[in-house]
Design brief:
Elements (H helix, E strand, L loop, with lengths): L24 H13 L5 E9 L4 E9 L12 E2 L5 E8 L6 E8 L5 E7 L3 E7 L8 E7 L4 E8 L3 E8 L2 E7 L4 E6 L7 E3 L2 H8 L4 E6 L4 E6 L7 E3 L5 E4 L2 E3 L5 E2 L6 H7 L1 H5 L8 E2 L1 E9 L2 E8 L5 E2 L4 E5 L4 E5 L8 E7 L3 E10 L2 E11 L5 E4 L9 E3 L2 E5 L4 E5 L2 E9 L5 E5 L3
Parallel strand pairs: 20-23
Antiparallel strand pairs: 1-2, 2-4, 3-6, 4-5, 6-7, 7-8, 8-9, 10-11, 11-12, 12-13, 14-15, 16-17, 17-18, 18-19, 21-22, 22-24, 24-25, 26-27, 27-28, 28-29, 30-31, 31-32, 32-33, 33-34
Length: 431
């Protein structure tokens, strides 16, 4: 467990003019407390408010100096060393009674998100450049005493793999110092269970890891590496092979993925053209990304680098061994994105999408393609997705901050939290 502040992150935020919308009396009372603690924080914004007791609200707000105005309409939380995030308790019947729990500056750059806010603790995550997951900041408080008990930081677990063996579904992740295995047990009183060392060993041994030493102190980090891609045989008698990004038949004939033309690109991605991607300087190089075989078909999602003059048109589809043709679909919901994971089911094709640009991978959510109606549905998800699996009517995904569950219209997110004494537990994110 770390007691230091968040490490260096990079985020991008477009600010609006220094205009503060009219505040409610309750919000204004919180702003008065912020001003009293730090008069330089002239811009204020309430980020979260919810009841934590019969007579108390938990309020999370941010304050910023004049030269760093806040955008009142932006869902992003820009929490850097110039801005301070505050946690307060406020009496509902007497909103002028506000109790300050904490008022803390962020790191140099931090795209913050409220992961959890309860009657006992609040967890704020930070995401940086190239979707790097920074330290979670945890505030523990006693609402009866109206006081902060503890404030500490910890590296979150990125869940990089989902494994299904003998009817068991287990997620494996790393916090850069150790691995953890979490089993999904549908229908149980606690559906996600962190496995003990003995039970976890068989699952942790199924993933590849690597170690690096970084920084002047030569700090050791442990992370999960991608699996070596395996050859996939499909079609009649396994006559076709997919390997190293290419499809080859039994006679050695290769079937290359058709590349989008510039006219295809301009028609599908007009905003990219407006941003300077002209015919003379645009390089289109699209590849077959994640794949899954289904009888004579090899389903896949396209990937392409989208920056510095390189681009492409997102899409998905399948190569059919029966007619030796690619069947590609390019709905508007996917044209701007690459596919990071795919899951093919009899009724639907699930895909995680992201933008692979010069600032790293920017997650863009999950798509569901209905194979009967051809309708596309998008599920918003702020985390990078590393895989997809299905359990009953639910779709689950290991992500950069934990585990996501899609159940009908609902998307739930879970992460591995730490207690004040260093124990690990599964917690549900509030949004």
């Amino acid at each position: 467990m770390s007691n230091t502040g968040p490490i260096l992150l990079v985020a991008f935020f477009v600010v609006s003019p220094n205009v503060t919308p009219a505040a409610t009396p309750a919000d204004q009372a919180v702003f008065t407390v912020i001003h009293g603690a730090d008069p330089t924080l002239v811009n204020r914004k309430v980020l979260y408010r919810n009841a934590v007791a019969a007579d108390l609200d938990l309020v999370i707000a941010i304050g910023s100096p004049a030269e760093w105005p806040l955008d009142p309409n932006s869902p992003a939380i820009w929490w850097d060393e110039k801005r301070k995030l505050g946690l307060f308790l406020q009496e509902r019947a007497r909103p002028d009674r506000v109790y300050s729990l904490a008022l803390a500056a962020g790191s140099l750059d931090c795209g913050a998100r409220i992961e959890r806010a309860t009657s006992s603790d609040t967890v704020i995550s930070c995401t940086g450049e190239k979707a790097y997951q920074g330290l979670n900041q945890k505030f523990v408080y006693d609402i009866r005493a109206k006081a902060l008990v503890s404030h500490f930081a910890y590296q979150p677990f990125a869940m990089m793999r989902v494994l299904t063996v003998s009817g068991r579904t287990v997620f494996v992740g790393s916090d850069l110092t150790r691995l953890v295995a979490v089993e999904f047990q549908p229908g149980g009183p606690t559906e996600f269970q962190i496995l003990g060392n003995a039970d976890a060993a068989q699952w942790l041994g199924r993933v590849k890891t690597a170690q690096e030493w970084i920084g002047s102190g030569r700090n050791e980090i442990l992370y999960i590496t991608p699996d070596e891609p395996e050859s996939i045989r499909f079609g009649p008698s396994g006559a076709f092979t997919f390997a190293a990004g290419s499809i080859v038949d039994g006679n050695g004939k290769s079937y290359s993925l058709r590349q989008s033309t510039y006219d295809d690109f301009a028609g599908a991605r007009g905003r990219r053209v407006t941003n300077g991607y002209a015919r003379r300087n645009t390089i289109i190089e699209e590849k077959i990304g994640p794949v899954q075989s289904e009888g004579d078909k090899l389903w896949f999602g396209k990937t392409f680098y989208d920056g510095e003059g390189n681009s492409g048109v997102g899409g998905f589809g399948y190569f059919d061994a029966s007619d030796r043709q690619y069947h590609l679909m390019v709905p508007s919901e996917i044209v701007d994105y690459s596919v990071s994971a795919i899951r093919v089911e009899p009724d639907a094709v699930w895909m995680a999408i992201f933008q692979s640009g010069e600032y790293g991978g920017s997650p863009a959510g999950v798509l569901r393609y209905d194979r009967k109606t051809q309708a596309i549905r998008k599920y918003e998800l702020p985390d990078a997705v590393y895989g997809l699996t299905v359990s009953g009517n639910r779709t689950l995904a290991p992500t950069s901050s934990g585990i996501a569950v899609i159940d009908g219209d609902n998307v739930s997110r879970y992460f591995i939290d730490r207690t004040t004494d260093g124990r690990l537990k599964i917690a549900e994110a509030i949004r």
